[in-house]
Amino acid sequence: MKPVRVGICGLGTVGSGTFNVLNRNAEAIAARTGRIITIGQVGARRDNPACDTSTTEVSRDIFEVARNPDIDIVVELIGGYDTAKDLILTAIEHGKHVVTANKALIAEHGNEIFQAAREKNVTVTYEAAVAGGIPIIKCLREGLAGNSINWLAGIINGTGNFILTEMGDKNRSFGDVLKEAQELGYAEADPTFDVEGIDACHKLTIMASIAFGIPLQFNKAYTEGISKVTPADIRYAEELGYRIKHLGIARHNGAGVELRVHPTLIPASQPLANINGVLNSVVVNADAVGEAMLVGPGAGAEPTASSVVADIMDIARTMEAPQTNPKPLGFDSDRLQDTPVLPIADTHSACYLRIHADDHPGVMHAITSILGKQGINIEAMTQKAVRESDGYADIVILTQKVQESLMDQALAKIEQLDDVQAPVTRIRVEAMA
Amino acid sequence: MKPVRVGICGLGTVGSGTFNVLNRNAEAIAARTGRIITIGQVGARRDNPACDTSTTEVSRDIFEVARNPDIDIVVELIGGYDTAKDLILTAIEHGKHVVTANKALIAEHGNEIFQAAREKNVTVTYEAAVAGGIPIIKCLREGLAGNSINWLAGIINGTGNFILTEMGDKNRSFGDVLKEAQELGYAEADPTFDVEGIDACHKLTIMASIAFGIPLQFNKAYTEGISKVTPADIRYAEELGYRIKHLGIARHNGAGVELRVHPTLIPASQPLANINGVLNSVVVNADAVGEAMLVGPGAGAEPTASSVVADIMDIARTMEAPQTNPKPLGFDSDRLQDTPVLPIADTHSACYLRIHADDHPGVMHAITSILGKQGINIEAMTQKAVRESDGYADIVILTQKVQESLMDQALAKIEQLDDVQAPVTRIRVEAMA
């Protein structure tokens, strides 16, 4: 059979990793795929010194790759929305299979892209879009496909996990560690996507669609970042037997799907609690398997390339019969469910509250009375030493599970107390069981 | 398209789990596969009260299922060697695809079975044969297929891991915990397969073939059980910063492939060190991804069924073009490597030694002198309190990496010392880095 010709668009971190892995492991890749896979063309605005492209055809116009009749698989690694989407749709229009690592694009425009691919009977894969080198898409879509999934939870942003790990290990502030993460290259100059949970939410949106057979609905997900977490919260949580992780959680609760990214207290004994630094990890809880966990690098040139190349190999193997591939979201698009994504106000969580309050005999009573009137049960409550700087103390409360909207109302009332300094810190708690 | 008809042979633990998962999740399975999957026939010597087979055709002759012209996929869940092999070969001969959970059969007769399947252009899959519900076969064969794998290490026998965990947590002897494991149903009446590492070695053999593209070579693997590990060893290891796990290790060291199952000291900080109880876990170290880890249940009716059903779904999806499936061992059988499996004597490991010796001034000198003459460097050495019962003390030594055959010679000499009680306990140490 003739070689499969890959066109790589974008020669940044992941593009260069993909270029190098495909070349370095070419022989074993051919032995595994049954087809020789060659890089037919690279589209990149500039060269990357990490890649020797001297014997490769390079175009400065990525759209030339998408239209190149000699290219079988277009690999989109330029990132971003508009141009990337145009590129992918152009490639599909020209009958090419597509591999992408673009989580933002898939989460926000995947439905449209998959529809276009369906009409042209080509395959679009995106393993590298979620959790870098961890083959979680394949696991959800194929390896665990016989299961009815109850929930999944993941540490799916290495930057945020690095920051929380450092804050906890070294008692450092969020801002301080963020600055270091930027210097180390773990965080972008504009860290919003990572620390506000948008990146994690893109990945969660994709995983939830596969897990529950629902269309991609990024806009309905709840997202909360880690910037308000303090070293004191991490310490208090530790004293209570918990760690704070920035989790993406998707749960089918019967009525609908919860889709939320937020800082979360999880029991220190939970495996996810011990995933530190820039690692990613996803736990899947499902009816047949029970619980399975995957751990690995969530970013980086070659870890991400590992997933891109796996996708290329899957496509190369099935190129003569693309209809044998799994559907992009696991479920056939005609068979996706209309299970609603629940507004955060309708979800239920236990909560950790840190209330900074004047050390005054009546304040505890006032707070517990507000919680009691909202029907919120207290699991644990401790008052921490008064801070000399302001004469205020931290009151730390663990509540039992409560509907989010009731907690919102209680917090609004607590924040109106004269003795309480607003805002109150509220971090959701997950038993993960 | 007409439904895909599955024939389940064997209605024991895994068979009943498969029967129930296929029925319970039938609707979602059809939506994911694009084909309705029905149980066309069950072959079992007796009914299983866990399954309602009242509307299913049941035969007391499993070979009837293998020859049934209405069956597309034969699922072999009877276990064992001869009959299972005959059944699978009969099914292949009749043009049926095959799914099996039989690790012993695949590890020892897989080459022959895969050759037969190749000649008939049918698919044979066996995800459930390794690490139960963890989709490790798919991860190695597809998800990490672009990598050149350096090594993999796994806790791949839940019984052994349960026993070691209990011994360590509760300072109990091997025999004592084994008895409890038998009562709990975690261990068989004859526990040899589990505690002597044969079961783990079957799984390791299969993973190593996929990882390194070599034929299955169970007979060349080294296997050592956990029965000689004592609570004292676990405690001493802990003091040195290690845990003892029964690992299957496959490593490509340039000259060849190491393939070995034995108790192993690993640093307590390693993720594998914290996998406890009946859980299974596999760590893969590879050139592109770096390190990835999977954790999950290694046995049980529905966890194992999760993998069996995933295999059935893969086959159902590709039934019109089975040649698009990955090769059974990842690599095309024409392209398997003749990389030798190294004899254990040629491998190199650091070692933990526990020497039970008379508390006599010359004995330390005699031991270190023997090690020194063999060129074995000592990393750490401590003498533990004398046991009142026999007046002997435990001398615990950690050595640097040394060729196995040199260590064998040193141990033979140490065991000949008058003051030393033979045998010396030797447990290999892996830094896993």
In short:
Chain A has about 425 residues and is an alpha/beta fold. Chain A has helices at about 15-25, 25-35, 60-65, 80-95, 105-120, 135-145, 160-170, 175-185, 190-195, 200-210, 230-240, 300-320, 360-375, 405-415, and strands spanning about 5-10, 35-45, 60, 75, 95-100, 125, 150-155, 220-225, 240-250, 255-265, 280-285, 290-295, 350-360, 380-385, 390-400, 400-405, 420-430. In chain A, strands 7, 8, 9, 10, 11, 12, 13, 14, 15, 16 and 17 form an eleven-stranded mixed β-sheet that branches. In chain A, strands 3-2-1-4-5-6 form a six-stranded parallel β-sheet, sandwiched between helices.
Give your account of this protein's structure.
The structure is a homodimer of 433-residue chains. Chain A is of the alpha/beta class and 433 residues long. The first copy, chain A, has three domains: 4-133 and 301-335, Rossmann fold (3-Layer(aba) Sandwich), CATH 3.40.50; 136-297, 2-Layer Sandwich (Dihydrodipicolinate Reductase, domain 2); 344-429, 2-Layer Sandwich (Alpha-Beta Plaits). The first copy, chain A, contains 14 helices and 17 strands. In chain A, strand 9 and strand 10 form a beta hairpin. In chain A, helix 1 crosses helix 12, helix 4 (82-93) runs parallel beside helix 5 and helix 13 packs antiparallel against helix 14 (404-415). Chain A is elongated and about 80 Å long. The mean pLDDT of chain A is 96. At the A-B interface, helix 1, helix 2, helix 6, strand 12 and helix 12 of A face helix 1, helix 2, helix 6, strand 12 and helix 12 of B. Strand 12 (290-297) of chain A pairs antiparallel with strand 12 of chain B.
